Every structure is written in structure tokens, then in C-alpha cells.
Amino acid sequence: FGGGGSRVTTKVLRSWFTDRSRPHVIALGNQKGGVGKSTTAIHLVIGLTRQGFDVGSIDLDERQGTLSRFMRNRQRFATAAGIDLPIPDNQGLYRSIHDTTSKAGEDEIARLARVLERFRHKSFVVIDIAGDNTFLSRCGHILADTLITPLNDSFLDLDALVRIDIDGQRIIGPSAYSVMVTDGSARRAAFGGGSPDWIVMRNRLSQIDSRNKRQMQNLLETLAPRIGFRLAPGLSERVIYRQLVTSGLTVLDIDDPSSGIVSNPRNRAAAREIGELLHAIGVPEHLAAEESDRQVAS
After folding, report:
1. Closest-CA residue to 228 (of 277, 195, 188, 193)
2. What share of the chain is helix, strand, coil (3-state, %, to 5)?
3. Checking DSSP bridges between strand 124-128 and strand 55-59, what pairing results, if any?
4. 140-194: per-residue pLDDT in tens?
5. Which of 217, 253, 256, 262 has its CA 20 to 30 A from that of 182?
6. Could you count the other beta carbons within 10 Å of the beta carbon of residue 196?
7. H or E segment at 207?
8. In the chain, which residues have pLDDT < 70?
9. Are 235 and 273 in contact (CB under 8 A)?
10. How far apart are CA 284 and CA 116, in angstroms?
């Protein structure tokens, strides 16, 4: 596993998983870049908050820092416009600057433990995981009750899940990322966390039907039971997603008149995509089950 000292790491993760009142963790992970992890994380955080849930978010993507930058931009926009936008509690958690593996690991697990304690009484925690295979990245995957892997709707991006031959017709074996997810699931079970719900989300979908699109759907449906994930609808290729993020806004802020977002059919359709993703994840069902567990535990 590496990092943080095995005893300390085991203690922190066991403590987290044995707490029946802990929040539901949704993590976004994929070792490929440019698949929309941060964009999806942002919309999930705001979507859950807009539904009235107490949400915390953790940004583990040190190189990009998109989630943290979005939250800062959102605060600036709200202050400048004089409006009360919902701004969830976000914490960036990046790799240690210590120059030895042991010290760096101890520092990282200690900071992770403090963030988990800070968010322990939230309803949900959303984690944006960096694409590299680091100690914090592995911890993010282990913590995920729901792991979402965004995948561009292209055969070229399938190597995030499996290794395929050049014409995309024969599966050679699992990808390094799939192996990491499987290993993380086993470690999670050993810590008392049970099995995660792994969701592959077809992202940046073309709104026009095509033969390639149908082939991707058929292949992923074939792979799902073999690798251990399920499919969920993703976000279409829409310019509005990227345009709004730079201002700290999302399509879910349409109904706030001060946001300046035009309420038109296209923006409404984009907002519905987020709602469909939350429904596919099973957010209401997860919350109902966990709230029942909390009441029993208390």
C-alpha cells in the first residue's frame, strides 16, 4: 500500500469505516486526463448541495486543482454580485513536501485524518482524485462508497479499463487502473468498508446517434459484469459546462436570477443531465439507507 505507515493508515481507515454515521463518499477517479473528472465532481457537489444536503469536497488533484479553484471563483462571484450562492466546504489535500517517504507518508495520512474528522458529520463527501498512482490517490479510491470513472466516448479511451488490440475488437487484459481499483476494493474490504459501487460514466457524449456510439455502448455492457462496474449516463459535449466553471457557476444555478445564466432549453437540458446522473448513482436511495443506519447507531 505504501505511505503513512501501515499501522497508522489501518487505524485511520478502520476508524472511518466502523463509524456507521459517516458520510457517503463519492469519488471521481481515472488515470487518464481530460475525461471530465473535475467537471463532474463540481456538478455533483453543487447538485447535492442544491438538493439540501450538507456536502464536503476534497481536491486531491494537485496538478490541476480545478475543484479548489472553482470554489474560490464561486466565492468571488457571490461576493461581487452580492448574492447568497450555496458554497460547499472544500479542502485541498496534496502530496507532502517532505523529502523522505516515511515522513511524507506520515504527514499525508495525518492531514487526511484531520479532513475526514472535519467532514465526519456531512451527508456526502465528494473527492476529485488525481490521475497518478500516489498514496493519497489510493486512499481516495479506498474511501469511495461510490467510485465514478468518467470515460470519453471513444475507443481510444477504453484503455482506462482494458487493454485492447489495435482495432478494438479483442480484449487483451485489464488496464493498470482496473487493477488498482480491484486492489483498492480488496483493501477497503479488509478495513471493514465492504464493496464499493463502481460506476463507469460515458462522458462528453455526442448528441447525434452513430455506429461508433452504439459499439461503445455494446462493448461497455459486455465488459461491465466481467470487470465489476455498472454504466451510468454522463454529460454531453456542451460548451456551457466549461464556460460557467471559470466563473464559479454551474447550470444548476440557472434559477438564481443574480447568476446571470440564461434560462433556455439547452441550459435546462444540461441541468437535467446532472439530475439524471444523481438519480443513476442512487443518491436518494443511499441517503435514506444511511440516515436509517445513523438513527439506529444513535
Report:
1. 195
2. 50, 15, 35
3. parallel
4. 999 999 999 998 877 778 878 888 775 656 778 788 899 999 999 999 999 999 9
5. 217
6. 22
7. none
8. 1-5, 166-169, 205-210, 284-298
9. yes
10. 22
